[in-house]
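Work Package 3 (structural annotation) set out to generate three-dimensional models for the target panel prioritized at the project kickoff. During this period the team completed the workflow that converts sequence records into discrete structure tokens, so that structures can be stored uniformly alongside our sequence database. As a representative example, we reproduce one entry of 114 residues exactly as it appears in the project archive.
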Amino acid sequence: MKPDLQIIDPTQYPNWDELLISSSGSNFFHTSSWAKVLKETYRFMPKYFTEFDGDQISTLVPIMEVSSFLTGRRGVSLPFTDYCEPIVDGGIQFKDLLDLIIEYGKSMAGNLWN
């Protein structure tokens, strides 16, 4: 079963931090504040792979789109983050979720993750 993943920029998503409060396993590094620091300081683009169960986050894998003249554009787990486990409370296995994210990256390679 394929989850109903949305790609979200938490710095632009209304009430993002309030949604996180009710999610088990969330911490400071999942917040819009941390995404904003990375976005404004390093010009990384947040791409948070998210699934909702009603008005709660059931799946969250935070990824940043990083661009470098040396290594090109790519998706990476949250850089400069001490500890930030993905949130996977839904019915999908993490490996399957990771496969979907990698597939997305490959499909967007020609579009530079737009």
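The beta strands are 6-8, 45-53, 56-68, 72-77, 87-88.
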